[in-house]
Specification:
The protein contains eight helices and 14 strands. Strand 5, helix 5 and strand 6 form a beta-alpha-beta unit. The longest helix has 17 residues. The termini are far apart. It binds zinc ion (ZN). Zinc ion binds next to loops.
């Protein structure tokens, strides 16, 4: 993989798609899935780019080295971010994203037992309806702009991120492999018949940022746990933070700095 990139060209003409792994360097599930798929896959149509994201962080098995690569695809990175290795890598990756019509970016979670889900917006429906991951979450472009999927969506293309489960769970590699295979079929690159899957949709609506340097959760919350109206979520300094309405909670964690992401709230779309 020269500079972390492998391109496979099909026998006949067609779209170009890109699959990313290791945008966070310690999320190895997607990287292991690449090792299984790249040597064996047959691409019938178009061109598929397999790209490793944060090469330096992958080598060190860390999330990132100087800046979170998956926030550097936004319009206005800070001067500090622009000095980072990750910013330079984002510019290299943009070359490949710009050549592609659809993206699948594979992530994994540091939380044991976390379940797989897909992050995308409505424009991805033509592809995600075929992906074998039940939970589909919309709204991240608004709440957490600057990821690879955000970048694709902003250009009128299709950006999909997959959270494939816990980084140390071997099943997360299987989840990544199955979703890659389905993505390639849905995007028209292989001759496998694409099969539709059942999905539930969640719209993320709010992000809570710490107002003090001491945000402590009432208790640990599972991702997508249902929170009742007025349920206690945590203490921000001395302020009790409660749910304004019945919601699902995501990425809840304690924080010791002001302005950090403590949790996201959303709701199931019926
Ligand atoms: Zn990640």
């Amino acid at each position: 993989m020269e500079n972390g990139i492998v391109e496979i060209i099909g026998e006949t003409e067609g779209n170009t798609s890109i699959i990313l792994a290791g945008v966070h360097g310690n999320e190895v599930s997607g990287i292991k899935a690449f090792e299984q798929i790249i040597p064996t896959i047959t691409i019938a149509r178009g061109r598929v780019i397999f790209a490793l994201g944060n090469l330096k962080a992958i080598k060190q098995n860390v999330r990132f080295t100087e800046a979170n690569l998956n926030r550097l695809f936004k319009d206005n990175p800070s001067d500090v971010e622009k000095e980072s290795y990750e910013y330079r890598r984002a510019q290299e990756l943009k070359n490949y994203l710009d050549q592609s019509g659809a993206l699948l970016d594979i992530h994994a979670s540091n939380t044991p037992n976390s379940k797989p889900f897909i992050i995308c917006e409505n424009n991805a429906d033509q592809i995600v309806q075929y992906l074998p991951t039940e939970t589909i979450v919309h709204g991240f472009d608004q709440l957490e702009p600057g990821g690879t999927d955000y970048y694709m969506n902003k250009k009128g293309k299709i950006g999909i991120a997959l959270e494939c489960g816990y980084i140390n769970d071997p099943k997360s590699v299987d989840v990544a492999v199955k979703n890659i295979v389905s993505f390639l079929s849905a995007a028209g690159h292989t001759d496998d018949a694409a099969k539709k899957s059942n999905h539930s949709y969640i719209q993320m609506e709010r992000i809570y940022l710490s107002k003090t340097n001491k945000f402590i959760l009432e208790r640990p919350f599972d991702d997508f746990e249902i929170i009742n109206k007025e349920q206690k979520i945590g203490l921000d300094g001395k302020e009790q933070i409660i749910a304004e309405e019945e919601s699902v909670i995501l990425f809840a964690r304690n924080r010791d700095k002001i302005g950090e992401e403590c949790f996201l709230m959303g709701r199931y779309n019926s």
